[in-house]
Design brief:
Elements: E1 2-3, E2 8-12, E3 25-29, E4 34-37, H1 44-54, E5 58-62, H2 73-81, E6 84-87, E7 104-105, E8 111-113, E9 118-123, E10 132-136, E11 141-145, H3 163-173, E12 180-183, H4 192-217, E13 220-221, H5 222-229, H6 238-254, E14 258-263, E15 270-275
Parallel strand pairs: 4-5, 5-6, 6-7, 11-12
Antiparallel strand pairs: 1-2, 2-3, 3-4, 8-9, 9-10, 10-11, 13-15, 14-15
Helix pairs in contact: 3-4, 5-6
Length: 278
């Protein structure tokens, strides 16, 4: 466990892998009545560390989103502590934790106010539809879940993931007073303005590569676009990059900049994409 500010301690789960980085971060906030953000997966050693640190003071469990490395531990901890579950569920897209049932259904702008601290909920769809960030107003610290990760880009998986919404949500965060970002994976980020600008520039830069490759190739499938658009990414990560590429193309289609064509002579009607003539 690491004390990262006067009000916040971080406990990182032992679930390190290429997608989670060093592991999922769980954050304890306060000292008298505690709030926990993202209990993580059901990993006994991790949940025991949370209970040892929080004990009977755990009053609220907040979930940024219901992916299986962020929320499944919530129900078990609530059963043992009586803590109130706060979060937002969404239709299952095959990637959701269906065990999570919030006591309080989260809405944008909701406040959790105690004598020690105030947490404000900020709806930031994009990575997934029910993704929320939490702003600790007392320290201007943003708990970003999977909206922002330290050291890597967030994968956007349609249809629940939406690239246009992701960019808009990131732009929206620029309107808040944020001094640091506590990500769901990785270390504390203390240059939030640069981080937010960098994310938007990175996504728009990747989008420009999509358009460049479509101009070069003409009609192209996801697989034929991947090597050129993700030329800086290790091929072992192409399966995940392909999801974000799909999200970019859906955004460009919504904007009328590309057109999707279905080749029904191929297996399963493979999607191909071309530049719009507009």
């Amino acid at each position: 466990m690491k004390q990262i500010s006067p009000l916040v301690r971080c406990i990182t789960a032992p679930n390190s892998n290429p997608m989670t980085g060093p592991g999922t971060n769980s954050y304890l906030i306060g000292s008298d009545q505690l709030a926990l953000i993202d209990p993580g997966a059901v990993i006994d050693s991790h949940l025991e560390k949370i209970l040892d640190s929080a004990g009977e003071k755990l009053s609220w469990i907040l979930v940024t989103h219901t992916h299986p490395d962020h929320s499944p531990g919530a129900c078990l901890l609530a059963e043992q502590t009586g803590a109130v579950l706060v979060g937002c569920v969404m239709p299952d897209d095959g990637h959701q934790d269906r065990t999570f049932q919030p006591t309080t259904n989260l809405m944008h702008g909701d406040l959790l106010e105690t004598e020690e601290f105030t947490l404000e909920s900020i709806h930031t769809p994009g990575h997934v539809a029910n993704q929320f960030c939490f702003l600790l107003q007392d320290e201007n610290m943003l708990f970003s879940g999977d909206h922002i990760m330290q050291g890597s880009s967030v994968v956007i998986i349609p249809p629940s993931g939406d690239m246009a919404a992701y960019i808009a949500s990131t732009q929206k965060l620029s309107d808040y007073a944020i001094d640091s970002i506590a990500p769901g994976h990785g270390n504390l980020l203390e240059n939030p303005t640069d981080v937010l600008k960098g994310i938007i520039q990175h996504r728009l830069g990747r989008e420009a590569l999509v358009l460049e490759q479509l101009k070069r190739l003409g009609e192209a499938s996801l697989d034929s676009l991947l090597p050129g658009v993700y030329r800086d990414v290790d091929r072992t990560l192409f399966s995940m990059a392909k999801m974000s590429l799909w999200a970019h193309l859906l955004k460009l289609e919504q904007e009328g900049r590309v057109i999707k064509r279905i080749d029904r002579h191929r297996a399963y009607g493979e999607e191909h994409w071309v530049l719009s003539e507009k």
